Amino acid sequence: MLVSLRQRYGDARIDWIVQDAFVEGVAAHPDLSEAVPFARRKYGGAFGWISALGWMARLRKRRYDVVYDCQGLLRSAIFTWATRAPRRIGFANAREGGARLYTERIDVDPDLHTVDRMLELIEQAGVEPVRDMRLYVPVKAQQSWDQKRERLGIADEHYAVVAPTSRWPGKNWPADRFAETIDWMLQHGLPHVLIVGAKSERTQCQSILDQAEQSSGRIVDLMGKTSVGELMALIAGSSCVLANDSAALHIAVGFDRPIVALFGATDPRRVGPYGRLDDVVRASTGCCSISHKDEYAARRLMEEIHVKTVIERIERIIDWS
After folding, report:
1. CATH number for the domain formed by residue range(s) 139-317
2. In whole angstroms, what is the distance from residue 104 CA to residue 230 CA?
3. What CATH code is assigned to 2-124?
4. Edge-to-edge strand order for the sheet containing 87-91?
5. Which of these ranges, 46-60, 80-94, 196-210, 227-241, has the smallest mean pLDDT?
């Protein structure tokens, strides 16, 4: 969307409201004027709304001409309304009644891929969509990762990235199958495998982290040990990314890296790696009635994906020379 808006509006100021923890994910994009951080944790709690009101008042002072709400939640709709922009554009079916806060409500098929839904929103508002998914690593984050990589003795593009966790445990492939697949990758020529994820998710894959401790440095535990920018840098330099439905997977798409994407209850046609459905290994085609929030049922679904199937996909995408 950012690329599309820049092409349409030329030298205009184009800002992006981003949760503060994820600002590095977009801050280096050449088409962005400014990432406006929203401190979600700061504005939570009993009295956080007071600070949030001040933040929204500052939004209004920016005097935007048009604001697009691409998330379609009540919170994002309130932010859109708070700008007092003369054009406030969002989905007609925005959740939690948020559509009432827009000046323009656009009907978009909810079954489209999330990316296509956003592009349809701006296309109906008069902006020609440009499907450019490229991401950009902040310079300082790249330098920081290069230093870490050198200390760890990791050669660029001679490692795989494995993201064995997700925010929702029901999206996770069993940890022991990740471990078996990692062993296979190391036995078949990859010098290093990097394990990534959030610090809060470490308990989801303790067996893999134990495996890393016994690997003589070939399996590198980076869970909770990188910034968002460093995560982007290490994925950009990887040979391949093996991941559940998680941030690491979509970052890999932004850097056009080889991927194997493991999906169960979530539908890759709506939230999968954009333009890369051939790289998805899905548990079952008949899983639409199961929610990823139903951890027990969703985990059972992920157990339908076999190690052999995943290894066959990895063999296709890695240059083993």
Report:
1. 3.40.50.2000
2. 38
3. 3.40.50.2000
4. 66-68, 87-91, 104-106
5. 46-60
